[in-house]
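In line with agreed milestones, the collection of sequences with tokenised folds has grown. One record among many is set out beneath this paragraph:
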Amino acid sequence: MFFERFYDTDLAQASYMVGCQKTGECLVIDPVRDIQKYLDKAAEQKLRVTHVTETHIHADYLSGSRELAAATGAKLSLSDEGDADWKYSFGSEKLRHGDTFMVGNIKVEARHTPGHTPESLSFLVTDTPGERAGHVLHRGLRVRGRYRTP
């Protein structure tokens, strides 16, 4: 599994790239508006951005999720938690607590973790056995709202 943390000191904002090196697919979580850094890193690692998501609605900066999904043809998966005031009006897939999706051989599970905002999601990221032949790796990454731990 490939993992990269991007940190914007001006915005005090972190975003992440998680990739399956076997299949060449990757996910970007919480991209900022300048998407070139993600495109460059994906190319450097021989990955394709196939999925984009956000941990919560970002009112404090301009998200690059729509731009990155449009530039790459990636699926844009966003929270469907929270009340009517906290719903996304865009995105190709809505995520609720317990929903899972695959990025190559990497399983991503959405966890509803309200706090920073009512619709906030955390993501449990797990290598599946197909990622490394003969080995089962379970590295979990929890990403939550403003406070994220790699």
Remarks:
- The chain is about 10% helix and 40% strand.
- The helical segments are 36-44, 65-72.
- The first strand starts at residue 2 and ends at 8.
